[in-house]
Design brief:
There is one protein chain. By secondary structure, the protein is an alpha+beta fold. It folds into three domains: 105 residues, 2-Layer Sandwich (Beta-Lactamase), CATH 3.30.450.20; 175 residues, 2-Layer Sandwich (Beta-Lactamase); 141 residues, 2-Layer Sandwich (Alpha-Beta Plaits), CATH 3.30.70. The strands form three sheets. A six-stranded antiparallel beta sheet has the order 8-7-6-11-10-9, with helices on both faces. It has a five-stranded antiparallel beta sheet with strand order 2-1-5-4-3. Strands 13-14-12-15-16 form a five-stranded mixed beta sheet, sandwiched between helices. A hairpin with a 4-residue loop joins strand 6 and strand 7. Helix 4 runs antiparallel to helix 5, helix 4 runs parallel beside helix 9 and helix 5 runs antiparallel to helix 9. The protein is elongated, with a radius of gyration of 36 Å.
Length: 443
């Protein structure tokens, strides 16, 4: 009676079969007492473990528990085919005058799942640490994070959006698992406050759990894709580090999968570390940018120019891409400094930096070459087109410095003219000065 009322499974094994099983043993296996007393015990064991358990059983019966694992663990198979992790505690006894095994089986499935989760989480953190150390850009970091995320969550789709504080928008950084037609319809930028999941989550700075994507108002704009790809649940979490919003992580699963409370708690935990990683890489990028920029004008410095030129020369050799250079010198700058002082001269240089940045394309780059000299590098551009850019800059200088005697002389050339584009553009600039300053010379 005591054994039948225990909550753990108890059995007696003798003559290669069960001769006693309690109610908990029946509940654990799903078989009736009659079935268990007649079944081959190996049918209760998952195939990869059968031979091992058979050897252990024979060893216990022949020589006792010496040299046998005290609490062997293996995967059992219930009557309905469900697999469960069990821990067996065997003891050699005498039952009705013969040798037998008194066994106690414990269901450790949840414990095993927890061990696997902890192991997976440790692996994720190892990969996250490597991602922070190996990634020079946020995109590279996010790509590694999304790949490592598979260790802890069995997701079907996931993406990370990065927050641009200056423009108050989220920009899509990386997405994984999305079909091509769905990729085309994903929103690449979201303004905080928009009726989109990520924007809504970022604005509230709280996770958003959508139990049914086909019926939720925030996913209504992609409902046809939810139907097509059987998208079921979505969990969106703000990436916050030291109180600052760094971005948003989104995880999606298809039916019949769900995002359990345990899954969501795990995502919440790791998102803090992901946010810290993004924050660190952002800070490193800012420092790298500062080390390559002129403190006064905000333009890239001399060292960055030569590095960029080497890249451009390599692209020209590989892809035959022409590029141009505009060399700019501020006329009468020394005279202006002598007359009004260096502080006023610094204001002119700073204003010139702002003007050059606003006058070029995103693919172009502007540099302070030294003193009052500047260089603009224009990829995919011939010198005829570069001249038009120079003319536009000249017009802007006249407009913005009309209250001074400041003008600019410019030299323009391209890589088809000469491999040493800086030298050629510099010579063209001096030719312009010889002709009377405030001119553009193309070589």
């Amino acid at each position: 009676m005591i054994l039948d009322n225990l909550t753990t499974a108890v059995y007696i094994f003798q003559n290669n079969k069960f001769v006693y099983v309690n109610k908990a043993m029946q509940n654990l296996t799903g078989y009736t007492e009659k079935e268990l007393l007649s079944i081959n015990y190996l049918e209760l064991i998952d195939f990869p473990y059968r031979e091992w358990v058979k050897r252990l059983t024979e060893k216990v019966l022949s020589q006792g528990t010496d040299g046998v694992p005290l609490r062997p663990r293996f995967v059992g198979v219930r009557k309905n085919g469900e697999k469960v992790w069990v821990e067996n505690i065997p003891r050699l006894i005498k039952y009705r005058g013969k040798v037998a095994i008194l066994g106690n089986l414990l269901d450790i499935t949840e414990e095993k799942k927890m061990e696997e989760r902890i192991e997976a989480l440790c692996e994720f953190y190892r990969k996250l640490g490597r991602a922070v150390n190996l990634s020079a850009t946020i995109k590279a970091f996010c790509r590694r994070v999304i790949e490592a995320f598979k260790y802890i969550i069995d997701y079907d789709m996931a993406d990370i959006l990065i927050y641009d504080e200056e423009k108050d928008i989220l920009r899509l950084c990386i997405e994984e698992g999305y079909p091509e037609d769905l990729k085309e319809h994903t929103v690449k930028e979201q303004k905080l406050g928009e009726k989109k999941v990520a924007a809504f989550c970022a604005l509230r700075r709280k996770p958003v759990y959508i139990k049914n994507m086909k019926k939720h108002p925030l996913t209504g704009y992609v409902v046809s894709f939810c139907e097509k790809y059987n998208l079921n649940q979505m969990y969106t979490v703000p990436l916050i580090s030291k109180g600052g919003l760094e971005g948003v992580l989104q995880v999606i699963v298809r039916s019949p999968k769900v995002l359990s409370e345990e899954d969501r708690k795990l995502i919440d935990i790791v998102c803090e570390e992901i946010a810290a990683g993004i924050s660190k890489i952002k800070a490193e990028q800012v420092l790298r940018e500062l080390s390559q920029k002129d403190y006064l004008t905000g333009l890239y410095n001399y060292q960055r120019l030569w590095k960029k030129l080497e890249e451009q020369k390599d692209r020209e050799k590989r892809y035959k891409e022409v590029y141009s250079v505009i060399y700019i010198d501020i006329d009468n700058f020394k005279s202006y400094n002598d007359t009004f002082g260096h502080l006023e001269g610094d204001k002119i240089l700073k204003k010139m930096g702002e003007l050059l940045r606003s006058s070029i394309r995103k693919v172009d780059s502007a540099y302070r070459y030294g003193g009052e000299e500047f260089v603009i590098l224009l990829p995919y551009t011939e010198k005829k087109v570069a001249r038009k850019v120079a003319e536009r800059i000249k017009e802007e200088v006249e407009k913005n410095f009309s209250f001074t005697r400041i003008t600019v002389s410019m030299g323009v050339t391209d890589s088809r003219t000469n491999e040493d584009v800086i030298k050629m553009a510099d010579e063209a600039m001096y030719e312009a000065k010889k002709e009377g300053k405030d001119r553009i010379k193309v070589i």
